[in-house]
Amino acid sequence: MDIQYITPKDSNYLPSLAREIFLDQKKFEDLLDRPSSLEEITEYAKTRNFGAEKRKILHKELLEQYECIKWSHQAVKDNIDALLNEDTFTVCTGQQVHICLGPFFLISKIKDIISIAQQTSQKDIYNIVPIFWLASEDHDFEEINSVQIYNQEFSREEEHGWPVGRLSPKSILSLLKQVEQKLDSTEENKKYLELCKHAYNTFPRLAQATHYILDQLFGDQGLVIIDADSQILKKQMQDIFIDECINRQGEIAILKQNTLLTKKWLKAQAHPRSINLFYMNSDHSRLRLEYKENTYQTVDNSKQRTKDELHKEIEKCPDKFSPNVFLRTLYQETILPNVAYISGPSELKYRLQMKELFALYKLQMPVLLPRMLTTFISEKNLEKVHTSPASLEEYFQENNALKKIFIKHAEAEQKHFFQSYEEVKKCLQKAQNKLDTDEAPKKLRKSLKNISKEISNIDRIVHQITQEKIEESLPYKDYLKIAKLSFDTEKRFERSQSVIWTLPIINNLIPYKEYTYTLWSIAIITQ
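^ thats the sequence. predicted structure below, dont judge the formating
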């Protein structure tokens, strides 16, 4: 396996916002607390305060969660214990709990935080621990309910409004049987399916099953996994939950920040509500909380509370309240000694809406870093790219831009023709300048004008023929297939390919020690 890291500034492969921030960070400095850089992580660690009591709560909760999944990795135990020390901080990323882990980019996200932790830890000064946040409270069942194998989608039929992490994973087992029949019967596929089957058979919740699978894959690299759907952890958020309900200042803060976004011609990714919380019913449904006519109620009107009743319930049962996308960012910084968060393209957008919300609750934003984009190309196709007229970076451009490079190359190969052609045009121009007087015969001037017109037609025809030849040539079609397979800007490899479909790559990528997070870059994996 080999990995190259490139940053094609002119490419659409980098999402537009990430490209903008990369090219002009000053434009975004009033939207973030600190610049996006690895150096800023160690700078923030110097001033990051996280109390000893919070560290004890986090340590105890993590140990209990890991006891539930029968963990066995000393590297994880060491990192959890290290969180008790005031010089230990976390770098975090997160994702929903998909079937069989979901899209390929989940793996590269985790490799990113492991690499960042290794790069930013400073011996005897600061220790940085990679931590993965299971977004187990999300109730978007449709988004996580399928897995795609060889362009065929497999999904469960049932529907829930539950937090997906609380769902029973046993219903996935019948789906895995269908997947197993479709998937190539290789040893690595069998091993991974057995791992998933064991997890889904053993643990009562999908969050725990996902925790177990991730621990089996990344535990020896010290990855710490946290499920924040916890009464103990949410107890630390109860003051913010109460303030959000009673004073409802969160929406105002976010809208104020959105005004700054608008001035920079940016569009808000997510929209705040007067109360940015959900309520967990006894039937596990997760329903939006609303304030109407001096009462607090769930969106379906099944639960109604007065201000005092709601206040008491949050104090007694904070686990019944679930933060939305905005308050979740505050939750992370409240319960973790976090110094950096690694986000995908969509997360990057809504994180820019947060600064005023953090200021409202006197919290500091972590260093915000974009995850590396990842794609794969076989050695055979990489060799073809290296012998083509376009460079590897140029393959990340749109197809029309790639075609122009091939046309330009083809015309350069016909240099002898174009040189002769240019000489004829120059001679013709000289003759026209001499004859273009009132004394020159009208018939001669007209004839010369016709010749110039024909020459222009020849120019157009030559370019058209060259373009048609390129489009019809087998080599160009082959290169276009490679571009579509590995460098498509609309259907990116990392999003369109699932973990279960890319196991041959992943099995080599996970233990790959030379994987290095590189800011604003694309990792091109070859094997």
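The first strand starts at residue 2 and ends at 6.
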